[in-house]
Design goal:
By secondary structure, this protein is an alpha/beta fold. It has two domains: 213 residues, Glycogen Phosphorylase B (Rossmann fold); 174 residues, Rossmann fold (3-Layer(aba) Sandwich). It is 41% helix and 15% strand. Strands 3-4-2-1-5-6-7-8 form an eight-stranded mixed sheet. The chain has a six-stranded parallel sheet with strand order 11-10-9-12-13-14, sandwiched between helices. Helix 4 runs parallel beside helix 6. The longest helix is centred in the N-terminal third of the chain and has 19 residues. The chain is globular and about 65 Å long. The two termini are 18 Å apart.
């Protein structure tokens, strides 16, 4: 198999986490993968890791399992959307000739949301004469219109390009059932869902937070972008005041504006850089509630589930869920916390209630059990392998 991805190990990003988890299982079953991906430069837009980890352009690199990584060059950039797009276009264009030098695959897999990667996957699959699997981890092209990348009634080049590739893919894989249904209503036939998830056995189950605590602590861990509307939780923390503390971990295009807002409001907020390993677990253990947030004015987010949702569910922490649609349904099904409207007043009211009645923060193991049954990568990878085997007309591998 050849996998085209705009981000992969040793970076820490949504596509990296998904495909590291999946390839752990694929490789254990003896499947062979060539991963075509840029030299590691996420999230700052330049290489910070040593070359033996980040990789060198046009050189082979051994992965964590049995996969071989082929690195393409990148364009250094900052937080600018245009600069990131140019970088992705450049790396995607370089992925096609480098992909022709990999072992001949049975199938090419291209994983969005890097839209140029979809075009590269389409070209590579056609040049190699093999099936194409398009993996839509976000609701494109709907998200392009919601985010105003596309305006007006006439379809943009972006929308037409994405739909062109989707319609010609041999299999389209989504991470939510809702978006799969959306694509089916548009005439796509071969659409399947393999959700995001995690290996539950790698995530500890946290005990209940301290029942006696003077300061209520809320935690958000993830991307600080337009999609998350983190200004809402910052404003909510300012309304609650010194009775609480909000921790925001991560980075994103909105980070400078969010830090400025918190300072202007005098909000009880601490910003942290991206954390890893035990530092992440320590931050989770300190939290009373964990925030899962998506803005509520983009319709495409009704069929979107933030990937961090599954981690929070497995940990067993209370969830402040500022989400709608499929993500809200999962929180409800897993009995994981409270769903609240995306307004500072509503979020602040919930946090005051939780601080006043800390018994509501005590969770059962229902959410962790939900993840075991619906979003453990051991089962998700087996489903993915079955879909690929069916596409190729082969018997699925059933033994490691």
């Amino acid at each position: 198999m050849t996998l085209l991805a705009h981000s992969y190990w040793p970076e820490n990003s949504p596509p990296q986490r998904r495909w590291t988890a999946l390839l752990r299982e694929f490789c254990a079953y003896g499947w062979e993968f060539d991963v075509v991906t840029p030299v590691a430069h996420f999230p700052v837009g330049k290489r910070e890791l040593p070359a033996d980890l980040a990789g060198r352009a046009f050189r082979r690199q051994k992965g964590q399992f049995t996969e071989l990584i082929r690195r393409v060059p990148y364009l250094p950039h900052g937080n600018s959307h245009l600069a990131r797009l140019l970088d992705q276009c450049f790396s995607a264009a370089m992925s096609v000739p480098l992909g022709l030098l990999t072992r001949r695959p049975d199938v090419v897999i291209a994983t969005a949301p890097s839209l140029p990667i979809l075009a590269a996957g389409y070209l590579l699959a056609r040049l190699r004469g093999v099936p194409l699997i398009v993996e839509m981890r976000d609701a494109w092209p709907d998200l392009a219109r919601d985010s105003r990348m596309v305006r007006g009634r006439v379809k943009s080049v972006v929308e037409m390009a994405v739909e062109f590739v989707q319609k010609r893919a041999d299999l389209v894989v989504t991470v939510t059932e809702g978006f799969a249904d959306t694509l089916r209503t548009r005439g796509l036939k071969n659409v399947k869902t393999v959700s995001n998830g995690l290996h539950v056995d790698t995530i500890p189950s946290l005990g209940s937070p301290d029942p006696e605590r003077d300061v209520f602590e809320a935690l958000y861990l993830g991307n600080h972008g337009e999609s998350q509307r983190l200004d809402v939780v910052i404003r909510a923390s300012a309304l609650v005041g010194d009775a609480m503390h909000l921790h925001l971990v991560g980075h994103g295009t909105q980070s400078p504006a969010l830090e400025k807002l918190a300072a202007e409001l005098g909000a009880p907020v601490t910003f942290h850089p991206s954390l890893h390993g035990q530092d992440v677990m320590d931050r989770y253990a300190s939290a009373d509630t964990c925030i899962v947030s998506l803005r509520d004015d983009w319709k495409s987010f009704e069929t979107t589930v933030p990937s961090k949702t599954y981690e929070v569910l497995a940990l067993g922490r209370h969830v402040t869920a500022i989400v709608k649609g499929e993500a809200a349904r999962i929180i409800e099904d897993a009995d994981a916390g409270d769903i609240v409207p995306s307004t500072p007043e509503a979020v602040a009211a919930l946090w005051r209630e939780l601080a006043a009645d800390r018994s509501r923060l005590v969770r059962s193991d229902a959410s962790r059990q939900w993840v075991k049954e619906h979003a453990d990568y051991t089962q998700l990878a087996e489903k993915y392998m079955e879909l690929i085997s069916e596409l190729l007309g082969k018997e699925p591998v059933t033994q490691r």
